[in-house]
Amino acid sequence: MIPMILGVLVILAVFFLAVMYYDCNRFVTTSYEIESGKITGEYTFVLLSDLHNKSFGEKNEKLIKRLEEIAPDAILVAGDMLTAHEKTQRHHVAIDFMSQIGRKYPVYYGLGNHEHRLMLYPEESNGRYEAYTESLHKAGIRPLINESVTLPAVNINIAGLVLDRCYYRKFHAYPMPEGYLSDLLGEPQKNAFQILIAHNPDYFMDYEKWGADLVVSGHVHGGLMRLPFLGGVISPKLTLFPQYDGGKYEQGHAVMILSRGLGTHTLPIRIFNPGELVVLHVRHVSSKE
Fold first, then answer.
1. C-beta of residue 130 within 8 angstroms of C-beta of residue 169
2. 75 with 51: CB under 8 angstroms?
3. I need a labelling partner for 146 at 20 to 30 A (CA). Which of 10, 43, 179, 216 fits?
């Protein structure tokens, strides 16, 4: 009986390791339609997040090819394209990838907790943050650090939010005081379609109250492992079955698109949870439609 049980456990372990290897080295494309009367035309964004220095093929050729097939009008980056505490110094992967896409598309970059950590503690980064931001600037990318840009042709405003590190604490959500987002970002443009790039999805209700029409987030990596009916298993806060693990969510007048990300860090785990490239088709819709 015991040998049979051990045999079953070995088979299961091999199966899950095979799935993990497969899912860690592929990505899928997910598309969403976003409509609003505020938008004055049609626009296609690609949402990227949590690459964490992952390369799909030589110099991310598979990811680049997929972007070329989609031919977006612009790219939204929801943070963590590199890893703050990576000892192998593989940040050149993120530099090369961002440099390639920055020369081909307008890129609106919101920082994740990993970029923010490098920015806050430059003595720990051995010049990585400076080298990274310099490469972004050379490619025409300026990170939106609690700043906004406007796309007047389609009446869209894009804000990039950088939260304090206390909002990434483990085990529980740190409460966000009233007025915190307005102090960082100012007031949203009421007559424009307001996109908020906010790496941490846990504060979606606060983002909606601030005035975001569309929130794009990452950070959760899809919950590492996904189970039927239950979704993602664990969040970066180390809470089981997080409320927000990936996909489309609605709150009041706002929609949040949460990417399951592309790479991994610390624990290279993705089970039934491949990387994800997200396409957002935004368009005008009249009240009569």
1. no
2. no
3. 43
The token pair that represents 130 in the structure block: 């400076």
Average pLDDT, the chain: 92
Radius of gyration, alpha carbons of the chain: 19
260 C-beta neighbours (distance < 10 Å), count: 27
**pLDDT tens digits, one per residue of 29-40:** 999 999 999 999
Task: Report the C-alpha gap between 55 and 61 in whole angstroms.
Answer: 8
Q: What is the dihedral of CA 197, 202, 208, 213, to 10 degrees?
A: 40
Q: Are 85 and 56 in contact (CB under 8 A)?
A: no
Burial of 161 from C-beta contacts in 10 A (0-12 / 13-18 / 19+): buried
Residue with tokens 């492992």: 225
Q: SS3 helix, strand, coil % of the chain, rounded to 5?
A: 35, 25, 40
φ/ψ region of 56 (left if φ > 0, alpha if ψ in -120 to 50, else beta) reads: beta
Residue with tokens 């680049």: 64
pLDDT, mean of residues 261-270: 90
Span 258-287, average pLDDT: 92
Cα–Cα distance for residue pair 159/205, rounded to 1 Å? 17
Distance of CA 27 to the CA centre of its chain: 14
pLDDT at residue number 288: 45
Q: Is the pTM of this model over 0.85?
A: yes
**Predicted pLDDT at 88:** 54
Would you say 225 and 231 are in contact if contact means Cβ atoms under 8 Å apart?
Answer: no
